[in-house]
Write a structure and sequence with these properties.
single chain, alpha/beta, 3-stranded parallel sheet, 7 helices, 9 strands
Length: 191
């Protein structure tokens, strides 16, 4: 069995994890993992040496090998919707990656290579409709910072009302400056 970790912790602390979990953890995914993971699995399946594969860190003869951050997907609409299996009344979605702010205390700006990226309203509506069809009544938006722009959100808000998706309970993180810059966002979010 091969074990690997991805996300913020392994991206920023792969040396510690690989050394402390020696013999338990085989690989760390550095940065976004979709492309790196596929390349790693292909390499392992073909029994080739992992070498310095981008986005992968591991121990080789007791020394850490890291290929740096992996490739990122620029157009998030190209990603398929995640496998859902049995859906209950709650689900989560991801609309964007990154954050447009550069807060000194936050690691998000160091995690991503590309600037703030987000899915199209059309793609988000399609996934929300699917979740509603499956009986979901509560959706957590996993974005580090929801609402790319007022124009994007106004379009989403309008389409949600048209498709009656505003009857679902939503939970999301939002940078406080967004509300201060655009006070009517609070009114729209409340509706």
């Amino acid at each position: 069995i091969i074990t690997l970790m991805g996300g913020y912790l392994p991206t920023f602390s792969y040396e510690i994890l690989l050394n402390e979990l020696r013999g338990v953890l085989d690989f760390c995914i550095i940065g976004e993992g979709e492309i790196s993971l596929l390349k790693l699995l292909h390499t392992l399946n073909s029994k080739k040496d992992v070498g310095s594969l981008k986005g992968i860190a591991y121990l080789k003869r007791g020394r850490i090998v890291c290929g740096g951050k992996g490739e990122e997907i620029e157009e998030l609409d190209k990603l398929p919707f995640p496998y859902r299996g049995r859906i209950r009344k709650e689900a989560s979605i991801l609309i964007s990656r990154g954050c447009p702010f550069k807060c000194s205390f936050c690691t998000i700006r160091n995690y991503y290579i590309h600037p703030y990226r987000f899915r199209s309203v059309k793609s988000v509506i399609k996934e929300l409709e699917y979740l509603k069809f499956r009986g979901v009544r509560r959706i957590k938006i996993l974005d580090d910072n929801f609402i790319p722009s007022l124009a994007w959100f106004e379009e989403l808000y309008k389409k949600m009302r048209i498709h009656k998706l505003n009857q679902i309970y939503y939970e999301a993180q939002l940078h406080p400056l967004k509300i201060l810059q655009i006070p009517r966002l609070l009114w729209m979010l409340h509706k």
